Amino acid sequence: MSAAYYRIGLIARTHGVHGAVKLDPLTDNVRRFSGLTQAYLELHGSYTPVQLCVQSVSPDAVIVKIEGYDTPEAANALRGGYLAVDRAHAVKLPKDTYFVADLIGCDTFDTDGSAFGKLTNVYETGANDVYEIEHGKLMVPALKRVLSEVDTEAGRVVFDAAVLKEVGLFAD
């Protein structure tokens, strides 16, 4: 179930007269852009390897020059696309943390054996993430006490049944 590519930035607009672009970072760690020289350009569902030069990094914007896009007009064609990395170049996550892309599509269950469907979205609320199951059928805060098992390789998330009854928000 693991994703092959991870989006790290949304190409928001052009920057300057030499074809650089401004990325909106899609990562919790913008320092990951420092020294990045290779990535994948995701446009219309296909991934193309690209060489790049990171010109500046700030918490809310990254300026990148992508090889082969040397004018504002050429770079403008990239708007709405994504800069991505493959699994081998993804940042290493701390224990018990997961890439959202790996969680989406996982089957969900509780420790009593009840099945709830696929995990369809993850909302980052600041305090803790919230897992959405089957487009709102069930909302579950991603608390350690509710997560009995997370196995993204097997595509499986298991919630503690007793805790789920306390914290889960079930649609009527």
CATH architecture of the largest domain: Beta Barrel
Largest sheet: 7 strands, mixed
Percent helix, as a range, is under 10%
Superfamily (CATH H level) name of the largest domain: RimM
> Number of helix segments?
3
Please mark out the parts with pLDDT under 50 across 5 or more consecutive residues, or reply none.
Answer: none
Instruction: Kindly provide the name of the CATH class of the largest domain.
Output: Mainly Beta
The chain-level structural class is mainly beta
β-sheet strand percentage: over 45%
CATH topology of the largest domain: Elongation Factor Tu (Ef-tu), domain 3
Question: Kindly, what is the distance between the CA atoms of the first and last residues, rounded to a whole number of angstroms?
Answer: 30 Å
Secondary-structure element series: EEEEEHEHEEEEEEHE
- Output mean pLDDT: 94
Neighbour order of strands in the largest sheet: 11-12-7-8-9-10-13
- How many β-strand runs? 13
- Could you say how many structural domains there are in total? 2
